[in-house]
Amino acid sequence: MTRALTALAALGAGATLLLGACDRGAERSGGGKSITVVIAEYSKDHTKPFWQGLSEQYTKQGGVKVDLRIIDWNSIDQQVSTMIQSNQPPDVLNLNSFSSYAKDQLLYPADDVLSPKTRDDFIGAFARGGEYQGKLYGFPILSSARAFFYNKDLFARAGLAGPPKTWDEFAQAARKVQALGGGVIGYALPLGPEEAQAEWAIWMWNNGGDWKSGDAWAINSDKNVQTLRFLADLANRHRVTQINPGKTNRTDGAFQLFKDGKVGMVMGFSPLAAQLDTEKKVSYGVAEMPTALGQAVTLGVEDYLMAFKKPGNQDAVKRFLDLYYQPENIIRWITAEGFLPVTKSGLQPMSSNAKLKPYLDALPNARLAPTTDPAWDRVKLDVQQNIGLAVQPGGDPKQVLDQLQKNAVAAAGSR
Amino acid sequence: MLIAAVVVYPAVALSRASLSRYSITGLRQGSVGAANYARLLEQEALPTVVANTVLWVAAIVLVTVVVSLGLAQLLNEDFPGRRLVRWALIVPWAASVIVTSKLFVWIYDYYFGLLNHALLSLRLVAAPVDWLGNDATVMPAMIAVGIYVSLPFTTYVLLAGLSAIPGEVYEAARVDGASAWRAYRSVTLPLLRPALLVAVVLNVIYIFNSFPIVWTLNDRNPGFAHDTMITYMYKIAFKSSLRDIGLAAALGVVNVLVILLAVVLYLRTTSWREAEA
Question: What is the CATH number of the domain that holds B207?
Answer without folding.
Answer: 1.10.3720.10
